[in-house]
Amino acid sequence: MKLMLVVGSMALLLALASARPQNDVEVLEYESENIGIGGYKFSYKLSDGTSRTEEGVVNNAGTENESISIRGSVSWVAPDGQTYTINFVADENGFQPEGAHLPK
């Protein structure tokens, strides 16, 4: 159930970050490493100023307390020219975003 909440929260975050109109955006950098059962990581940078990094690690693999911890960040340039960044952790404690523009 918690994993579904984490994945749902991350999908919402990505949808919000990409909700603005898309023009001719190019991928400037892309890295992806699927390190197998124990986790993954990826990052990308786009020509419109959007960037994202994320790393997931399986904790307590094979046990009753197995969970995944995800850390990452996403940045984008808003229509007003301001760059926004959200750093986040998603783990057994839920989705925890932080950003200068977010309420505390």
TrEMBL record:
Entry keywords, A to Z: Cuticle, Signal
Q: Cellular component per GO? A: chitin-based extracellular matrix
**Gene Ontology molecular-function annotations:** structural constituent of chitin-based larval cuticle
Highest taxon, organism lineage: Eukaryota
Question: Where would one find the signal peptide in this protein?
Answer: 1-19
Q: Which InterPro entries match?
A: CHIT_BIND_RR_consensus, Cuticle_Struct_Prot, Insect_cuticle
Q: Which PROSITE patterns match?
A: CHIT_BIND_RR_1, CHIT_BIND_RR_2
In Swiss-Prot or TrEMBL terms, this protein is called Endocuticle structural protein SgAbd-6
Which species?
Drosophila gunungcola
